[in-house]
Design brief:
Shape: elongated
Order of helices and strands: EEEEEE
Radius of gyration: 14 Å
Largest sheet: 6 strands, antiparallel
Number of strands: 6
Strand content: over 45%
Length: 111
């Protein structure tokens, strides 16, 4: 597997949107995202089309497969406004069974 495109951003609010920094070139990428909140929220839901990859977590990994190339966007919604850091990566499979991708880790307030 190779990273086709990725992006990170930090912000505040109840809605989180993180886009890849450029367009993907592979129409069948797997898109993974992770958001870390700074406190205050008691729940988070994945955006439309995404599946939560963990349960009962406030810092939520998500994923989905896509069917077209282009800029990919990972989204979440917290139940209340707070500070957050998010990442979104599009992974292109290069054939055969592969190891799951490693996404960058981050902490709230890290730059």
């Amino acid at each position: 597997s190779t990273v086709d495109a990725s992006g990170t951003i930090n912000g505040s609010g109840a809605s989180v949107s993180v886009s890849t920094s450029g367009a993907t070139t592979n129409a069948t990428d797997l898109v993974f995202g992770y958001v870390v909140q700074g406190g205050g929220a008691s729940s988070v839901t994945p955006g439309s089309g995404f599946t939560a990859l963990e349960t009962a977590q406030i810092d939520l990994p998500i994923g989905k497969s896509v069917t077209s190339a282009g800029t990919q966007t990972c989204t979440w919604t917290f139940n209340t406004s707070n500070n957050w850091d998010g990442t979104c990566s599009a992974i292109a499979a290069t054939g055969g069974a592969t190891r799951p991708p490693t996404l960058p880790l981050m902490g709230v307030g890290d730059d």
